[in-house]
Write a structure and sequence with these properties.
Largest sheet: 11 strands, mixed
Shape: globular
Number of helices: 17
Strand content: 5-15%
Distance between the termini: 61 Å
Strand order of the largest sheet: 1-3-2-6-8-7-16-17-15-9-12
CATH architecture: Alpha-Beta Complex
CATH class: Alpha Beta
Length: 570
Amino acid sequence: MTVRNLLPVTAALLAVVNTMDAQRRPTPPPFSVVEASISDLRTALEQKRVTSREIVLQYLVRIATYEDRINAIVTVNPNALAIADSLDRLRASGRVLGPLHGIPVALKDNIHTTDMPTTGGALAFAGLVPPYEATLTKNLKDAGAIILAKTQLTELANWVASGMPTNYNALTGYGFNPYDPRRDPRDNLFDGRPVLATGGSSSGTGTNVSFWVGNVGTETSGSILSPSHQNMLVGIKPTVGRVSRYGVIPITGDQDTPGPMARTVADAAVMLGAMESAEPDPNDEATRKCPPPAGRDYTRHLNPEGLRGARIGIPRAFFYDRVTLPGGQPRGGLNDAQRAVMDSVIAVLKARGAVIVDPADIPSVVDTVPANNFLNWNVCSGLEQAKGRDADCSIAFKYGMKRDFDAWLRSLGDRAPVKTLTELRQWNVAHQRAGAIKYGQANLDVSDEMSLQGDRAKYEADRRRDLHLSATHGIDEAVRTHRLDALLFPGVSSANIGARPGYPTITVPYAMLPVGGGAGANAFPAGFQPQPAPYGVSFTGPACSEPKLVELAFAFEQATKKRVRPPQFP
């Protein structure tokens, strides 16, 4: 038999062998969105193991399964499957829009979309569909993202009432933390609130339990960092202006910024690049401050060796160790469990080649002149610091709210259900029995009494003092004196001092710590055992230092990999 005659027989035998081999090989498991990263989703889409429609369906199933336990959502996008289908068709034709093509994310419900309401959690804004999209919404869609939902939030980003629990709003009630999704059983806190706070005014709970791959929060002082910390997420609070605020319900433009929340540094880096504009936004002058990295690509800074040679400062005073100011009581410091965590973190940084500068105290925190000490200069809030009682605190928040919130209402045109902050306050009082202002509206009240002309001089003086104590005599001086790449803070304790000048911070998960049983009125009932709570660390730097912070945070994350999924949400 010739070689040519053998060829068909050989081919037939090979086909049989291949079929038998395929039958012996285990079938690869179906793709799952649970804890899947952006890279995982992109790879599965590129390899045609899954479609965007199937990804959306999986997320919707998880929402249907778990949402009633954590209340992570204000609105689900009714067009999500149709959008996924259109993006699947584009991919099939060879066109990929960007790094988030066909990948679902969520937005805090104070960020404008034109296909879903934007309510801020306020009863007065129920059903409000703005006449224009936020710049960051457009940027995410241009990158191919599917906006799957609008997330739970503290009403109007937590500038309604002093004493209102985080993640409560009049529209949807309380949000719950997946690590302990129970109501607080203590008599003095028995109003329906969660026993373990979700943190901040943004919500990270949906990202935590894989309702979507990541979400966008907003921060004025702690509202990206805190919920990220409480949900074992990575949160990037960017330099104010890095991401456009156009189309975001404001508190004050001095400090407001959107930012990404995700389960990994890599995912947060991809989202940050997609949210940022390639050119300054003409609708937000602050976007001229920080030029974007090449190609708006922060993933170039995902260097696992990024800690080697980096100079990281330890701001011991107040943030680690208790301090006593002249004539004052001891303040700040860590408990024993937190101190042990931070000792371990510093050891990791040293082992990975970082140069630890310890102490690298913030000058305005240790300054013995009371007027020059940051700890003596708080944000005015609540009726006890109303007009006439606000000489010793900064009016930047309440003045900025009066200025910027009224401007936002004007931008809505005929769609604005109320035209001014005054009208909103009046509407809330008239609708208390319908559920408005359960905790009052003291912060709206003290904001509305501001006169944009009459109080301008004090506002400008207070703002200068904010910047001097937090930046010039604060973070900037510490960074310059010690030649630092970043400062390392326990938990999210840099939120206040970093927010005043609008400086960037990245928080990274690290540990789960026991929650104390409380004492006196705060003691838990006999037999009730609170579950451990997440605890992480934060890297804070000067303005526009996000690329370096991404590098440090990624290297630390890769050296530790401490994120733990909430066990009750498999």
